[in-house]
């Protein structure tokens, strides 16, 4: 979980985030809402895994190559840190995903 990267793009009137290191996606109506959805998706994967003593995202493959290519050409977007807390155990370090906005190629 050392590095979390995602490419953001608009498609069909909604914003999507495709994580690269793990083939997971998030979607929202606005770019601002998408940042909240990214935090929610990360929390849903990380917190239960840690509570069960498992490595977060274990067994999830990387995203397809086309998303990596979009990320390379995208514009960097500052992201808010995603904070986690569990009832037991030490505090968890925040995750600050590396986000880039890209335009999908014309069909």
Short description:
With 107 residues, the protein is of the alpha+beta class. The protein contains two helices and five strands, in the order E-E-E-H-H-E-E.
- Calculate Rg over CA atoms: 14 Å
How would you spell out the order of helices and strands?
EEEHHEE
From the spread of the alpha carbons, the general shape counts as globular
What is the CATH third-level topology name?
Double Stranded RNA Binding Domain
Number of domains: 1
Query: How are the strands of the largest sheet arranged?
Result: 3-2-1-5-4
On the 0 to 100 scale, the average pLDDT is 89
What is the highest CATH level, the class? Alpha Beta
Distance between the termini: 34 Å
What is the name of the CATH architecture? 2-Layer Sandwich
Poorly predicted runs of 5 or more residues: none
- Helical content class: 25-40%
Major sheet size, sense and barrel closure: 5 strands, mixed
Report the portion of residues in β strands: 15-25%
How large is the count of helical segments?
2
How many distinct beta strands? 5
Secondary structure category: alpha+beta
Give a verbal description of the structure.
There is one protein chain. The model has no long low-confidence stretch (mean pLDDT 89). This protein is of the alpha+beta class and 107 residues long. The chain is built from 2 helices and 5 strands. The protein has one domain: 2-Layer Sandwich (Double Stranded RNA Binding Domain), CATH 3.30.160. It is globular and about 50 Å long.
């Amino acid at each position: 979980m050392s590095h979390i990267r995602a490419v953001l793009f608009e498609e069909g009137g909604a914003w999507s985030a495709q994580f690269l290191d793990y083939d997971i996606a998030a979607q929202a109506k606005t770019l601002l809402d998408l940042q909240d959805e990214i935090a929610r998706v990360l929390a849903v994967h990380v917190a239960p895994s840690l509570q069960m003593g498992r490595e977060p995202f274990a067994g999830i493959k990387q995203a397809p190559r086309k998303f990596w290519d979009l990320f390379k050409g995208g514009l960097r977007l500052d992201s808010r840190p995603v904070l986690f807390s569990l009832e037991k155990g030490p505090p968890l370090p925040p995750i600050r995903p590396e986000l880039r906005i890209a335009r999908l190629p014309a069909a």
